Amino acid sequence: MKCERGKFWEALTFAVIFAMLAFLSVGCTSATTHYVNPGESIQAAVNAADPDDTITVRDGIYTENVDVNVDNLTIQSENGTTKTIIKAKDPKHPVFYVGGSYVNIIGFTVTGTTYYITHGGIHIRYDAKYKADHCNIYNNNCSDNQNGIFVYSSNNILFNNNCSKNSYSGIYVWGTNTIYNNNCFENQQHGICIHYSRNGNIYGNNCSNNIGYGVIFSDSDNNHVYNNNCSNNFFGILVDDSINNTFYVNNFKNDIISRNSNNVWNSTAEITYTYKGKTYTNYLGNYWSDYKGCDDNNNGIGDSHYSINSDNDNYPLMEPWENYFAPTENIFDTEQSENPYPSIMGTHNGTITPSSNITVSTLYTYACVGTGGHTESIKLYNENDTLIANGSWNGYIGDYHNITIHNLTGEAPYVTLLKNHEYRYVIKTGSYPQIIHAKSKDVTGGTITCDQFIDANGKTYTDWIPAIRLH
């Protein structure tokens, strides 16, 4: 009996250990990178992929329509849009038909989806079967389709895409999304069409030489629209049944139509700018090519308002908005560390003192070779210890060494750091960033110091400076 009991417990112990090992084996499965060569199928790679995998498409011309219904999947070209071209095999179907959420489509030329006006070369779905969102579509050339990019959902980011020469629009969106730094020109109808957007951000886009409108807003409220260029379209912009949107520091050339709408046409906070060699701080409106007002005090802002149907731009710009932000050195760079090790993730506290005025919107982190070193978050404080800017990492997506810095004290899409002023930083790093082992260092653009670094194990140092570039 005793022997049988021993065998029982031995068998039970073996079964438990086996189950634990099986569980750990499943839980520790690493993401896979799938490579697609010319003559092979991108769709086959998608079908074989699991969430968190990456598909890298090598140089070549591919003719197919790809249904992307796997969540957390990245599909990227190996060498960019000029090297990797995907043509629709069926013109009635999108080249990329995205049904999965958290999908990234990066670096392709996408063409040939020409049949339905409700389709785009890259199409994000939201229907009875698929409800895709939180996708990133960037660095693509989406031309010669009905719509370059068509989005039927919210919480996606579209940036750095070239959406030109499409039969209807460059970008067509239903829902709330972030749309920035896209070129939408020479489309047969419109540059960007936005419907039912709430609290979205649309900035830095070039919508020019379209036969219809540069930008259309319909049934869209509380969006922020800035730093866009709408020029040489038949109409600059159409705003229809939309309220409480804020339009500021844009260029509008040609007519504007506003129907059943009530919006704000200038910044809601003062912005520091330079005009004809002098620095001012004021509210800023938009540049209108047909504005006829005067500027008697020569501050770059018109003395009379510009009328937009029932709305007014009370601070119209006398020149295109780019002329109000004089180029500066715009870089603070420690450069790479000569001795980056030892390195570990942790939280850095220190100060930055610029040697000239700089405007920055991005933080780049130098990583130790062969590692995923990066910054998880950054906070910047002024001399009154007021938080003026912050930024957070978006994960291992695209160029993950860069994170965007957000201005918390105004509406400018950057933060200005003044010459010889001291700013406190709190930078939380991940993996293995390069470390400058010094208490203080003179760098390109100023001086950086370390007050305290607490590593992931709780150990404290006073001579660990993160190797970074602010630009």
List the helices and strands and how they pair.
Layout: H1 2-27, E1 33-36, H2 42-48, E2 54-57, E3 60-63, E4 66-68, E5 74-77, E6 84-87, E7 96-98, E8 104-106, E9 109-111, E10 120-124, E11 136-138, E12 141-142, E13 147-151, E14 157-159, E15 169-174, E16 178-180, E17 183-185, E18 190-195, E19 201-203, E20 206-208, E21 213-218, E22 224-226, E23 229-231, E24 235-240, E25 243-248, E26 251-252, E27 256-259, E28 262-264, E29 271-275, E30 278-282, E31 287-288, E32 306-308, E33 311-313, E34 332-333, E35 346-354, E36 358-360, E37 362-365, E38 374-381, E39 387-392, E40 402-404, E41 406-407, E42 415-417, E43 423-430, E44 435-436, E45 440-443, E46 446-455, E47 460-461, E48 465-466, E49 468-470
Parallel strand pairs: 1-2, 2-5, 3-6, 4-7, 5-8, 6-9, 7-10, 8-11, 9-12, 10-13, 11-14, 13-15, 14-16, 15-18, 16-19, 17-20, 18-21, 19-22, 20-23, 21-24, 22-25, 23-26, 24-27, 25-28, 26-31
Antiparallel strand pairs: 29-30, 32-33, 34-49, 35-43, 35-46, 36-42, 37-40, 37-49, 38-39, 38-43, 39-41, 44-48, 45-46, 46-47
Comma- or semicolon-separated keywords:
single chain; 471 residues; mainly beta; Pectate Lyase C-like; Jelly Rolls; 2 domains; nine-stranded parallel beta sheet; 49 strands; flat
Would you give an account of this structure?
The protein is 7% helix and 42% strand. The chain is mainly β and 471 residues long. Strands 1-2-5-8-11-14-16-19-22-25-28 form an 11-stranded parallel β-sheet, with helices on one face. Strands 4-7-10-13-15-18-21-24-27 form a 9-stranded parallel β-sheet. Strands 35, 38, 39, 41, 43, 45, 46 and 47 form an 8-stranded antiparallel β-sheet that branches. The protein has 2 domains: 33-269, 3 Solenoid (Pectate Lyase C-like); 332-470, Jelly Rolls (Sandwich). It starts with a helix and ends with a strand. The model is unreliable at 1-9 and 11-29 (pLDDT under 50).
